[in-house]
Amino acid sequence: MNTPVPALEVRNLTATFGDGRLTAVNDISFAVAEGEVLGLVGESGSGKSVTLRSIMRLLPASGAVSGEILWQGEDILKMSDRQLRSVRGGQISIIFQEPSTALNPVLTVAVQIEENLKAHTELDRSGRAARARDLMDLVGIPEARRRLKEYPHQFSGGMRQRVMIAIALASNPKLLLADEPTTALDVTIQDQILKLILDLRDELSMSVVLVTHDLGVVAATCDRMAVMYAGRIVETGTVQQVFSEPNHAYTRGLLGSVPHAGTERTKLLSIEGIPPGLNEISSGCAFNPRCEFATQICGTRTPVLEQTGRGRQAACFNRDAVIASGSPVL
Amino acid sequence: MTETANHRATRVRGRLPRPLVIGGSILLLSLFIGTFPALFAPYDPNVFDYGALLQPPGFAHPLGTDNFGRDMLSRVIHAYTIDMQIAFFATVFAFVFGTIVGALVGYAGGIAEVLFGRVVDAVITFPFLVLVIAIVSVLGPGLVNMYIAVSVVGWVFYARIISAEIKVQKQLDYADAGRAMGYTHMRIIFIHLLPNSITPAVVYWMTDMALAILLGSSLGYLGLGAQPPSAEWGVLIADGKNFMATAWWISVFPGLAIVLTGLGFSLAGDGLAELLRVKR
Fold first, then answer.
1. Are strands A37-41 and A224-229 parallel, antiparallel or unpaired?
2. Contacts A–B by Cβ distance under 8 A
């Protein structure tokens, strides 16, 4: 059994807001191997984005983070400002959901790309200009020379996301954090951007953590996935494993709520109710009020993640019942 | 989004906003007159002519003469020099200093913001003019002391505008993106956030220059600003106050000059606001 060395390892990460009254991320642990694409899946408010921002220490001042975030053996949460600055943007980059707000509207694209190069590389002025043109080619923006002189508002949504990726990749990061990078884009553009990210992953051999609520995106792009609910990871495994045999009632519900072309037509399942607010998470398993498999124990005890197979974990008391009812996808 | 797109589509590329063109022309002309008053003034502004006291506007003296026979047109023109200086020097330090402080305070938040809030409260509790007059009376009358007094009070307003803007901007994704790229705080504040936040302060600056001329004239009128016999619009109006019933032209024409220049600044401010509006 060859376990690849994790590039990023998150241990017992907890993020709270409002002096610890609201827990957005509750004691989660996961690892990302080199060159691996990990999908972080869940509904709105499940803590995916907070997890991602915690890794970059980008939470607002009202948020408190505990646990360990080991990047190549060093805890990001303990880094000095100086160390942090070289990791951010240099080794780990992040791209956001809304490319229209993530770019600075008053600076040209060239300035914004070269700025990253200036901060993280030793390139001189002409070296930076050349690298900026290469990056534009790399992310598939035609007429690089001309478009570099333009401002973000002169680009379309998809092109802006490409610019954002070009900036994020400027100094060859080893890990790309993508916070719903395609949610704000057209479906056709979504595909292109995802394909671009995957191509770049292969080309630059970087790891990717992809936050999304779109299971189609996960199926198309990720190697492994972690399903989050109410701030906890409830199930992890390879995409193949999880899709073919969900071990958690919530995962099964999620998979059942996506329409599938090319299979026998079945009734589309939906999970009743809405995810709980941070201040109303019920005792026991947070999912139990909405769960069709819930039994007595679910309301009293909190299930922990248990190893259920090679590289698979799930936190569900009624795992057997869930497995027995099969995957809604196949 | 579509609003700005339409806006750009209807505005012909490269054409400046009309208010900016009109206001800017007035200001450029004022600046030119202020720099080379001798080119425009028909007489020496300070030479007495006892043969032509209190002459009404006419061919020899288009704007009349004052009680010493000085040519009012020449005096109004020479006053441009001082008043344009007042507009600039009474505001530029407040603009620069206030912008820097406001940017730092808005970005830092927390205790810095609380302290700054108290300073703002302390300053705006006093009427602006009263505070400036108080400071000038301590320092002594004169233009330089007036600049100091106005700057000491005025920066607070710029800082307040900028800190409010920065507070909004720093929550946007591109600020997070900047942090996520590992840029320094100073870089994020001054290269990224400030250019996106400065427009309201620039527009306020334009208005403030107009107000500074009015203030300079008020202080001149009260004898705390520019000192007679130097020609300054406020001083000129004060000179004419005893003759309002018999020689209205002494006060009215400097007053019109103030109005015209103020109008220039206001229009330029409006136009700049339109021109600098950030496109997203």
1. parallel
2. 79
